[in-house]
Structures are given as structure tokens and as C-alpha cells.
Write a structure and sequence with these properties.
Elements: E1 2-7, E2 17-22, H1 31-39, H2 43-50, E3 60-64, E4 73-78, H3 87-103, E5 108-111, H4 123-137, E6 157-162, H5 169-193, H6 201-212, E7 218-223, H7 225-231, H8 234-240, E8 248-254, E9 264-268, E10 270-274, H9 294-308, E11 315-324, E12 336-338, E13 344-346, H10 354-366, E14 372-377, H11 382-387, E15 392-396, H12 399-412, E16 416-418, E17 436-437, H13 445-453, E18 462-466, E19 472-473, E20 483-484, H14 489-497
Parallel strand pairs: 1-6, 2-4, 2-5, 5-6, 9-11, 9-14, 10-11, 13-17, 14-18, 15-16
Antiparallel strand pairs: 3-4, 7-8, 8-11, 12-13, 15-18, 19-20
């Protein structure tokens, strides 16, 4: 979709749909909305009086202009209560407006949503939010669609209209940044939604190879089973044993010209399909287990966006990629695996496989002596119980890093909530026959997953992001359609943008 930023009067825009916002119970009407209301013979006032539109978050109304304005339609979108307004509320409003416009058959949108105050220093942030919300909301996964859905009208252009005498260069940079980030999220959503028959560990490795091709400063290394055997990656080798699809250990390095210092390591769980193995999952909902590589997909998306944004940082992306399947060769409950670090693990449940491959992935990352390690994983079903579907569970060993992640989450709209990692939890994975076991009892499931991972990062600053409850969305949200959400990319890019070279 084409995005442009221009100065001018929104009332003069010739477009299929003009988007304006209104706060809940905002009276008198702001000047732009008041002008539209007059032109439409008090059509907005009538909506408000009838209470069919109140300005609440998530509300939208379409008014046809009948030639009274150059725009064919006006889309009025709710911004919620003014004292509760956030940049993510603006992102949500833009997303709601975009899907409403598409539903009304609009191909061209003009939006005045960025103009919410006269404080121009916030304008680039608002432009980015509106562009981002629009692009993210209009995403559709149509690869396998052959019916009328694939031929539906889609929005082709977005014009962001800002006041005259506004410097456009920073606003256009903000819009371009939104395009890059939304493009990376869409790339990741595509991967997450692809059936495992078309996205095996080998396919994921080829995707990483294609991503790195032509990107200056980026290189990729793919380890096969024999190389994993030489490195004694017992977690990877154990989990992959039951599948006919060979494992792949994917390493991406991004080192832009002039970047100094140690890398920041991003490690993403990449189970391209998780049946549970011998500890097989219930059949209900198992079709969603193609999404168990969401962490790895988010790492690829983040590397893609970071390179396009030319972030001056060394980055390391690690994707331990396997299928977890039951068969005569599959690993079994009671088996003892020896991870790459040498730590031995009693397998209690083969459906707790993500932490086994992450053990090797995290330890491999320490070989680069990174300044920080961040992992993303659809690790525990308990995550949804702990924090629901609106937050990422965060745990780790470095409070300063966790705080930075928290702030990046608030800015990006991908919020995190910290859970404790106290020593008392260590006893939950004590084993009688090995250094640890791969799961505990039925308590503190999300915490236990992080407790298991902690020894494999050594003394490096580390943050664990459990995205199990946010990587797949069952009910459509303002800018997140149903299905793979692409969570993690916007959070990580926001975090990396603020990372100084000496930190």
C-alpha cells in the first residue's frame, strides 16, 4: 500500500474515505469535526444524539457525504476517554478505521488522525502510529484462498494530512519506519500461519538464507544433524528424533558497517509443528501447533526490520528448528538428554520440548559473549493462565534490561508483565537421576520454564519472553487480525532503537 504525508486541509481531500477521530463525550466538537458536521447538515450531531456513536474506543461510523465534501465518505472513529488516551489507542483507532474503510469498499483513505494537539514534537510519533495501525490491520493471509475472499477490494493508498507549515521530512521518515516494521510483522505472520507441511525446519532455514541474501552485513549459517552431533546438542537431537524432518540450527549475524562492541543475541523457539511427541497433545486445537515457531519467526522479522532500518547494532539471531513428533524413534519420558552445555536433563514430559532446544540455542549464543540475550518462545500454556492474552510474560536475570523491555512494551503496544524468578522455584525441577528435569508439578508453569532455561545463559544479562498467549489471536483486534499476530517484533525494534553502542 502506498503511504504519503502531506500538508493541507483535510476537508479538501478528494478521497474515498476521510478518517477523523473523536474522544468520548468530547464537547464542543473539535474544529475539524465541527466543520464536517456542518457540511453534512449535522449528521455527526444526529449520531451522537441517537447514541449510535459515542466516541468509545473500538467504535466507528461511516457517513456518506452525498457530494457535500470532496471525500465520498467520512469515517468517524472513537478514541475513548481523553484522560486515558495512549499512543496505542491511536494505533487501534487507525486500525479500526482501516478495516471499516475496506468494508465500505474504499480504495483510498485520507486520515487526519495524527492531528490531535498542537504539540508538534509528538507529531512524528503519531504519524508512525497511524501508519502502523493501518498497515497492520489490513493484513490478510490469502495464500491458500481460492474463493471470493481473495478478490475482495483492498485499500491501496493512505494519505496522512497534517497542518500547513509542518516540517514533512521527519514525518515521512516516521511513516517509512512504520512501513518497514509493519512489513516485517506481516512477513512473520505469514510464516506463523503457514502449514507445517509447507514450513519444515529445512524450509525455515531456506527462508533465513533468502532473508540474508543481498543484505549488506548479514550472513547466515545453517547447522545440520551431523554438525549438531559434533557440538553435542542433546536437546536438539533428542526432540527431533521422532520426526522424518531433519532439524536445522539457524544462525544469522548482522554486523552493519561501523558497528562495534558485542552483539545482542535474539533466540527464538522454532518448533515448526508440535504434536507433543509421545506425551501427545489432545486433538482439539492441535492444528494451531504450526504456530509453535512464532519465537523464531519473530527473530527473523526483527532481523529483517533492523537491517532495513539500518540500526547501528551487532545482532545475532538463533533459531533452533525442529518438529516434535511421536514415532518408534521418538525420545520418551524417562530419557536423559545431555545438552550442549553438558547439563543433563531428565525428560518427564516430551511436550515440554521447547525448553530443550532453547537450552542448546541459549548456550550456543554464549559463545559470542553477547552483551545481552533475549529469547522469545511459545513456551507454556500456563502463560495464558498467568497473564491472559494481552500481555507477554517476562522473566530474567537483569532488572535493568527487564525495565527497558517493559518501557519498550508500553511504547510499542506489546506490553509485558514480569513474573518472579526466585531461587525457591529451583527445587521444582530437581531430578533424582539428572541435573534437572524438564518440567515440574502443576504449579508455576511459566516460571518453571524460565527456571529451566536460566542455567544455560551463564552470567550474561538475559530476558525470557513467553509469547504463548499472545502469538496466536482467536478474536480479531483493532490492528491484529485473527491468527498469527507477529508479536515481538515491534517490542524488540523499540528496544533496539534505544540501545546505545556502549551499553
Amino acid at each position: 500500500m502506498k503511504i504519503q504525508v502531506k500538508t493541507g486541509d483535510p476537508l479538501k481531500e478528494k478521497t474515498d474515505a476521510l478518517v477523523v477521530g473523536l474522544f468520548e463525550e468530547e464537547r464542543p466538537l473539535p474544529p475539524l469535526v465541527e466543520a464536517i458536521d456542518r457540511a453534512l447538515q449535522r449528521g455527526i450531531t444526529d449520531l451522537l444524539k441517537a447514541k449510535t456513536f459515542k466516541g468509545g474506543s473500538g467504535e466507528a461510523a461511516v457517513l456518506t457525504t452525498q457530494g457535500r465534501l470532496p471525500a465520498k465518505r467520512v469515517i468517524l472513529v472513537g478514541l475513548g476517554k481523553k484522560d486515558q488516551f495512549t499512543i496505542d489507542r491511536l494505533r487501534q483507532a487507525a486500525g479500526k478505521a482501516a478495516t471499516t474503510a475496506r468494508g465500505a469498499g474504499a480504495r483510498r483513505i485520507a486520515s487526519a488522525l495524527p492531528v490531535l494537539s498542537q504539540i508538534d514534537r509528538f507529531l512524528p510519533e503519531r504519524v508512525r502510529a497511524v501508519a502502523e495501525g493501518t498497515l497492520l490491520a489490513l493484513y490478510r493471509y490469502l495464500r491458500y484462498k481460492t474463493d471470493e475472499e481473495a478478490g475482495k477490494v483492498d485499500v491501496e493508498s493512505l494519505t496522512l494530512v497534517v497542518p500547513s507549515r509542518t516540517a514533512l521530512a521527519p514525518l515521512r521518515r516516521a511513516a517509512r519506519e512504520a512501513e518497514i516494521i509493519a512489513g516485517a510483522v506481516s512477513f512473520t505472520r505469514d510464516l506463523v500461519s503457514t502449514p507445517s507441511s509447507d514450513l519444515t525446519p529445512t524450509d525455515l532455514a531456506e527462508t533465513a538464507r533468502s532473508l540474508a541474501r543481498g543484505v549488506r552485513g548479514m550472513r547466515v549459517k545453517i547447522l545440520d544433524r551431523r554438525q549438531m552431533e559434533r557440538l553435542k546438542m542433546g536437546g536438539m537431537l533428542g526432540v527431533s528424533r521422532g520426526s522424518s524432518q531433519p532439524p536445522r540450527f539457524i544462525v544469522l549475524e548482522y554486523r552493519p558497517a561501523g558497528a562495534k562492541g558485542k552483539p545482542i543475541a535474539l533466540v527464538g523457539k522454532s518448533v515448526t509443528f508440535d504434536s507433543g511427541g509421545i506425551s501427545i497433545k489432545p486433538s482439539a486445537g492441535m492444528e494451531q501447533m504450526k504456530y509453535d515457531m512464532s519465537g523464531g519467526a519473530a527473530v527473523l522479522g526483527t532481523m529483517k526490520a533492523a537491517a532495513a532500518l539500518k540500526l547501528p547494532l551487532r545482532l545475532l539471531g538463533i533459531l533452533p528448528a525442529v518438529e516434535n513428533m511421536p514415532s518408534g524413534t521418538a525420545y520418551k519420558p524417562g530419557d536423559i538428554l545431555r545438552a550442549m552445555s553438558g547439563r543433563t536433563i531428565e525428560v518427564v514430559n516430551t511436550d515440554a520440548e521447547g525448553r530443550l532446544i532453547l537450552a542448546d540455542g541459549l548456550h550456543y549464543a554464549t559463545r559470542y559473549r553477547p552483551r545481552a540475550i533475549i529469547d522469545l518462545a511459545t513456551l507454556t500454556g500456563a502463560c495464558a493462565v498467568a497473564v491472559g492474552n494481552y500481555a507477554i510474560a517476562v522473566l530474567g536475570t537483569d532488572e535493568k534490561l527487564i525495565d527497558r523491555v517493559r518501557k519498550a512494551g508500553e511504547a510499542s503496544g506489546e506490553r509485558v508483565w514480569q513474573l518472579p524468578l526466585w531461587e525457591e522455584y529451583d527445587q521444582l525441577i530437581k531430578s533424582d537421576v539428572a541435573d534437572c528435569k524438564n518440567t515440574g508439578d502443576k504449579t508455576a508453569g511459566t516460571i518453571v520454564g524460565a527456571v529451566f532455561l536460566k542455567p544455560f545463559v551463564g552470567k550474561h544479562p538475559w530476558v525470557h519472553l513467553d509469547i504463548a498467549s499472545t502469538a496466536w489471536v482467536e478474536n480479531e483486534r483493532p490492528y491484529i487480525p485473527k491468527g498469527g499476530s507477529g508479536v515481538g517484533i515491534r517490542l524488540l525494534i523499540e528496544l533496539l532503537k534505544g540501545w546505545g553502542e556502549k551499553e
